[in-house]
């Protein structure tokens, strides 16, 4: 299970939004539906997920109905605030959403669509473990209105998968992608690099395997060791080595080069797509600061600068909703300084970058130094944008510190 929830102000039991919240109806609205179930816990994962032995009073078979109760709550809250808008994007994340029957996912999507509506051409994504995707599952999801499947490949090398505690067989990724494509779904595959014992050659083999799938989108994330995870404990005991930062940088550069050669273009530090249309619009909504409601235990929401987060455990989440109460555990409204820091942090990650004019006035002069250090594209800066170079992507945190400290 994930670490503790953030501190914040108490959330109202009825879920109502503050009366002084300035909600812009033109800002896109998204929905995130969290499915917190996993067959096994991967050693690196600190997401709010639960295996069957950890549910303690919650039942997977009841989950869809419980989450639909929160959808009904959200509809009332947003309607009362004058903020009811159709969804631009929907994302089922986890956990492993496809551990639930595809019909349950379809029912949740149908309830959200009935409550809020979908814009024309909306993006609807479901994350999936390769072992859980069959032709029947893919067809049911497509018939329900899902447009995109995000498949957790992570690696094509068995010993790397074992180091990550991933249980799927590499060949199942191929069958899952084929099933998704046959159902008419767009496909993204997710990779992780820098696992204990993974060589540059192993990583190259995984990239080759991912490219051979001919997907529309590839995400490649550096392994991060999170406190409280099994992997963190193994490293602390000296059982496995700490990830090598220099090797991870080499892996990132290799990924960028191989993906670019295959026709993919980076649009966010860890994400590449073949076309602009195949970018993950849902993730871009986060990076651009749009509004979204996060449904499910531990899910976070954001509307007009107000943030809130739900109680973590599925049993506590179900109990709140059964009592006709909001499942929100806390709420916050970041101050102007925090919002500026977050805006720079998020927008600097995407290809379009952040406008120089959006930086605090006393920080704008620092852009010249970042150009001199090879971290910011000089041509983009002339056009008034701070856009990261390849070296800048590798040192993005340093760029953000320079533009905010």
From TrEMBL:
Its main location: cytoplasm. Residues 23-265 form the Radical SAM core domain. The keyword Magnesium does not apply. The keyword Oxidoreductase applies. InterPro entries: Aldolase_TIM, Coproporphyrinogen-III_oxidase, Elp3/MiaA/NifB-like_rSAM, HemW-like, rSAM, rSAM_sf. One of its GO terms (molecular function) is coproporphyrinogen dehydrogenase activity. Belongs to the anaerobic coproporphyrinogen-III oxidase family. HemW subfamily. This is Heme chaperone HemW.
């Amino acid at each position: 299970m994930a670490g503790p929830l953030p501190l914040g102000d108490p959330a109202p039991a009825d879920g109502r939004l503050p009366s002084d919240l300035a909600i812009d109806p033109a800002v896109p609205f998204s929905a995130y539906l969290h499915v917190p179930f996993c067959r096994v816990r991967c050693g690196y994962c600190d997401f709010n997920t639960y295996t069957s032995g950890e549910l303690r009073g919650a039942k997977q078979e009841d989950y869809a109905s419980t989450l639909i109760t929160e959808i009904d709550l959200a509809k009332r809250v947003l309607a009362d605030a004058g903020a009811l808008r159709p969804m631009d994007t929907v994302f089922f994340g986890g956990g492993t959403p496809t551990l639930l029957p595809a019909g349950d996912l379809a029912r949740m999507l149908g309830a959200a669509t009935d409550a809020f509506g979908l814009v024309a051409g909306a993006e609807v994504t479901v994350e999936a473990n390769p072992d859980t995707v069959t032709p029947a599952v893919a067809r049911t999801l497509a018939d329900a209105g899902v447009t995109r499947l995000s498949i957790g490949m992570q690696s094509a090398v068995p010993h790397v998968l074992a180091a990550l505690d991933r249980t799927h067989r590499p060949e199942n990724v191929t069958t899952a992608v084929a099933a998704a494509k046959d159902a008419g779904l767009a496909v993204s595959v997710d990779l992780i690099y820098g696992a204990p014992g993974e060589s540059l050659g192993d990583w190259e083999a995984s990239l080759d395997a991912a490219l051979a799938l001919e997907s529309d989108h590839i995400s490649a994330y550096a392994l991060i060791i999170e406190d409280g995870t099994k992997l963190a404990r193994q490293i602390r005991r000296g059982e496995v080595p700490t990830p090598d930062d220099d090797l991870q940088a080499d892996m990132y550069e290799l990924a960028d080069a191989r993906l670019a050669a295959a026709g993919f273009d980076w649009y966010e530090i860890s994400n590449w797509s073949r076309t602009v249309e195949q970018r993950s619009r849902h993730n871009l909504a986060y990076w651009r600061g749009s509004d979204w409601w996060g449904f499910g235990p531990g899910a976070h929401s954001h509307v007009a600068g107000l943030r809130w987060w739900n109680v973590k455990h599925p049993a506590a989440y179900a109990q709140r909703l059964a009592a006709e109460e909001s499942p929100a555990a806390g709420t916050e409204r970041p101050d102007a300084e925090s919002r500026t820091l977050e805006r720079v942090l998020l927008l600097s990650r995407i290809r379009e970058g952040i406008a120089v004019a959006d930086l605090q006035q006393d920080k704008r002069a620092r852009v010249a130094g970042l150009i001199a250090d090879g971290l910011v594209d000089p041509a983009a800066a002339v056009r008034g944008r701070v856009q990261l170079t390849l070296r800048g992507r590798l040192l993005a945190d340093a760029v953000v510190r320079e533009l905010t400290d």
